[in-house]
Amino acid sequence: MAAGKGETKWTLKELKDRLEGNELDLSLSNITKVPVQLLSSLPKATVLDLSCNLLVNLQDPFCTQLTHVVKLDLSKNQLEELPADFGRLTRLRHLDLFQNRLKTVPVSFWQLTSLQWLDLKDNPLDSALVPVVGDCLDERQCRNCAKGVVSYMRAVNSELERKRQEQLQQQRKLEEARRLQEEQEQELRRRKKKEEKERRKREYAERQASRKQQQEGGGQEEEADTEEKANGIASATPEKHRTTGSYCYKLPFIIIMLSVIAVAVATYFYCESEPTNQLCRDLQTRVHQVETVIRGWVAVAKQMAVGQKE
């Protein structure tokens, strides 16, 4: 055994030298740190005495590397707490924790189903644990202490497990509610997106219909303008025809009338000086005949003009 700064160094040979049968006595050795790795190399050491040392805590590998230990003496140390996984020492039947600084023991004690003897005297235990521990003044009381503590920690573990399950259930409910809310929000977003798409389609269709209607309206206006123009031309054409026709009817009469007037004037001036002239008498007769014919033509022309107006 070599001494270092605040820590005792052990060799495997030194540990083997202290091993007697299945008992390894490391008490009164000023140990501040348990040589767990070396002890795990001695599976025969099922009885381990670490009493009367300077242990404040047990390192994490302690409970995983020393599962072969059946009897463990940790009395008269300065342990303030035990590892949370202390229940891994499932083969442990005898445990001495007398005169330490423990206020409680790990919940994992409920796993120590093989524990038959336990001493927790002279520890500043919590008030809830004191009546469970009781006294350990004889074999019977120490057995009752082991049984009572294991049972108590089993109940504590059950209550903690119940609370964990409630928390898990509550968490599942919250997650389910969150999931439903997310689904509702997604559905709402999908619905809004669909409505927006349909709205755009409707607006596009309305614009197309309005554009088509405007185009059709413009075509109808063009047709109306064309029709009005055609009607104007058509209405103007008969009027023109009527005007032209009336001119066509009146022009011969005007020419004839002018001719008759000219003949009449010529006859008047000529025949006035020759009243007995045979030619003058014949001209007068012809003038009267032409005058009669002209009056007949004028009457017929008036009737035709009235008929065209109607």
Q: Can you summarize this structure?
A:
The radius of gyration is 69 Å and the shape is rod-shaped. The protein is 60% helix and 7% strand.
Textual characterization of the structure:
- The protein is α/β, with parallel strands linked by helices and 310 residues long.
- Helices cover 60% and strands 7% of the residues.
- It is built from six helices and eight strands.
- The strands form two sheets. It has a six-stranded mixed sheet with strand order 3-4-5-6-7-8. A two-stranded antiparallel ribbon has the order 1-2.
- The radius of gyration is 69 Å and the shape is rod-shaped.
Mean pLDDT: 83
Please, how many helices?
6
Distance between the termini: 151 Å
| Class by alpha and beta content | alpha/beta
Strand line-up in the sheet with most strands: 3-4-5-6-7-8
**Quaternary arrangement of the chains shown?**
single chain
β-strand amount: 5-15%
Q: Which percent range fits the helix content?
A: 55-70%
SSE pattern: EEHEEHEHEEEHHH
Main sheet: strands, sense, barrel = 6 strands, mixed
Give the low-pLDDT segments: none
Instruction: Count the beta strands.
Output: 8
Q: What is the approximate shape?
A: rod-shaped
The Rg value, from CA coordinates, equals: 69 Å
Outline the secondary-structure elements.
Layout lengths: L1 E2 L4 E2 L2 H7 E2 L2 E3 L10 H4 L7 E3 L11 H5 L5 E3 L20 E3 L20 E3 L10 H4 L5 H135 L4 H32 L1
Parallel strand pairs: 4-5, 5-6, 6-7, 7-8
Antiparallel strand pairs: 1-2, 3-4
Helix pairs in contact: 5-6
